[in-house]
Amino acid sequence: MKRLLYILLVVFLFLSLGVRAQEERKKELLRELAESPGDTTRLNILYELSVVTKYQPLVRVYYLDQLIKEADKQKNDFFKCQVYLNRIFMAYNSLDAPALHYWFSLLEPLTRKNNYYDLQFQGKRCVIDFFQLSGEYEKEERESKLLLYEAEKAGSVIGMVVAIQSLGNAYIVTYRDEEALAAYEKAYALSCKIGNPALTLEIIHSVTEVVQKIKDYPKWLKYIKLEESCINESIRHSKVNFSLPSCILMMYIHYMAYYTTVGDIDMAKYYYQLADNTYHMLPEAALYREYYARASSDYLRKSGQYEKALAQVDTLMRLFHPVSALNYNTAFEERAEILHLMGRDAEALDLLKVAKKRRDSLQIELLNTQTEQVKSIHDVYLLQQEKDRNYRYLQVIIISFLVVSIITITVFIIYTYRARRKLEHDEAEMRKMAYEVELANSAKERFLSNISTSISQPLDMVVESSLFLVSEQQIEDKQRVAISEVINKTSSDLMRLINDILDLSRLEAGMMRFVLSDVEVFSLIQDVVAGNSIESGRKINIVCPQSVLFWSHIDGTRLLNVFNNLFAIVIPGKELQVSIEVNGEETELMIKVHGTLLASQGLSQDMIIRNEINRMIINHFEGVYESRIETQTPYIYFTVRGYLTSFDQS
Known about the structure:
Layout: H1 2-35, H2 40-52, H3 57-74, H4 77-93, H5 97-114, H6 117-129, H7 137-154, H8 157-173, H9 177-194, H10 197-214, H11 217-236, H12 244-262, H13 265-281, H14 289-302, H15 306-320, H16 325-341, H17 345-470, H18 477-509, E1 517-520, H19 521-536, E2 541-543, E3 548-554, H20 556-568, E4 577-582, E5 588-594, H21 605-620, E6 625-628, E7 635-641, E8 643-646
Parallel strand pairs: 2-4
Antiparallel strand pairs: 1-3, 3-8, 4-5, 5-7, 6-7
Helix pairs in contact: 1-2, 1-13, 2-3, 3-4, 4-5, 4-6, 5-6, 6-7, 6-8, 7-8, 8-9, 9-10, 10-11, 10-12, 11-12, 12-13, 12-14, 13-14, 14-15, 15-16, 16-17, 17-18, 18-21, 19-20, 20-21
C-alpha cells in the first residue's frame, strides 16, 4: 500500500511539474518569438509552440496558421509540409474525413516535389487507416501494400514502418490475427533502427492488443516489459519526444489487462489504481478513454465490481456507436454478460438475443462488402484490359489528332492558368487595398476624435480664461498674472500641438521640405543635451565614442527636433541616459535613449504624434526608429546613417 501511495505521489508531482514546465516553456517561446529574426529560427519557434499546445486544439491551430504564413513568406516548403501533416493528424484524431483528404491533397504534391517521403508516407498512413470506417477493408489492404512498395523504393524506413502498421490493421479487422502479429513484429524490428521512441511505443501498443486477442500470454508480458523498458530508456537518455504521462498510463493499462486476464487480481488491482489515478490527472485523458474503459471494465467485472464495470461498458458503447458497429456490438455483449453475473438474467437474455442478431448481420454485411470489393476490383481489371486492347488498335489512327489536341489544350491551359493567376492576384491586391483603406479610415477617425479632444480642451481653457479677464469682475493682480501665465502656457502648448499635426500631415503626404547638409551628429547631440540640462536642471548621462566625428547628410533642423522631443520630457523618477554606438561598417549610429517619456506606455495624443513625427523623419533618411517597451527598462532605439571620421580627417 505504501509503495502504491509513493508511486501515485510521484506521478502526481510529475504531471504537475510537466504542466508547469509546459506553461513556462510556452512563455519562454513567446518571448523568443517576439525577439526572433525573420529566418528559420522563427519557424522553429512557431513549430515548437504548436507542439507545446497540442492538447489545446484551437491554440494549436492558431500557431499552425501562423507557421504556414511565415513558411509562405520565407518560401520554406519543409515547414509547410509539417503544418499539413499536423493538420492531417488533427483531422484523423477528430474523425474528420473531408479535412483529412483536403490537407493530404496539399501535402502529397509538395512532398513529392521536395522528396520529403517520410512526411508523405505518414500522412498517407492516416488516409489508409480511414478506409476502416467506411468498411473498405480490401482497399485498405491494397493501399497498404502499395504504400509499402513505394516506401521500399524510396528507402524510407519510417514509410515502411507505417505501411506495415496499416497492413497489420487491415489484417486485424479481417480476422487474420497471426498475419497481423507478424506484421507488427516486423514493424517493431524496423522501428528500433530509427531511434524514435514514440513510434516504437505505438507499435508495441498494437502488438499487445493482438497477443491479448490470440491469448499468447508469455509474448504479451514480454512486450509490456519492452514497453516499460523503452519508456525508462527514453527518460535515461533524455529522448522523450512524446507525451510521457500518456505512455505511462498505457503501460499501466496493459499491465492491468494482462494480470486481469491471467487471474492475478491483486496485481491487476495494483495497476488499476495506478491507471485510474493517472487517467484522472492526465489533461489529454480523453484520447485514451477507449483503452482505459475496455481494460478497467474487464478488471471490475472479474473483481466483482459490477456497477462500475457497467459504467465502463456504457462508456465503450457511447464511443463505438457512431464509428464502429462491430465494436459496439461486442460492448453490447459484455453488458449482457455483466447483467447475467449480477443475477439480472432476463435483461441479459434480451440483450444477448439482440447482440446475436446484430453479429450475424454484421458478419453477413462484412462478407458481402468484401465480395463486392473483390468483384469491383476484378471488373476494373477486365475493363482496363479491354481499354488497353482498344487503345492499341486505335493508337496509329489517332496519334496525330492527339498531338494536335494536346498542343492546343496545353496552350489553352497555360493561357487560362495565367489569366486565372492574374485575376487572383488582382483580386488579392484589391482586397488588400480595401482592407488597408478600411484600417486607414478607422485610424483616421480615432485620430480625429482624439485630436479634437486634445485641441478643444486647451482651447476652451484659453477662451474661458480670456473671458474671465475681460469680464467686469474684480480680479487681484496675482490672480490676473496667474491666469495670464495659464493662457500663455496653454496657447503655446496648443500651437505646438497644431504645428506637430501640420508636420505630421506634411510627412504623410510627402510634402515636407528638407534642407540637407552635412551635420556632425555627436556635436548636435551634445548641444541638445547641454541645452536641455540647463533648461530643466537635470543631468543627462551620455555615452558615445571618443575622439571621432560622425557625419550625416541630413536636415539638421529636423534631426535637432527629434533629439529635443526625446530629451525634453523625462519619465518621473528616471534619469535620462543616452548610449551611442557605431556599427561594424562605421556607416550607422545606433542610439538608445532610456528614461524618455516617449518610451513609456499609455502615451497622450501629443506624445503619440511626436513619436510618429520622429519615426517618419528618421525613416525618410533610411534609419530605424522603434519604441521598445517590452523590455524591463523601456527605451527608444533609432539609427542615423552616415560615416565616421577622426579629428585629423575632419
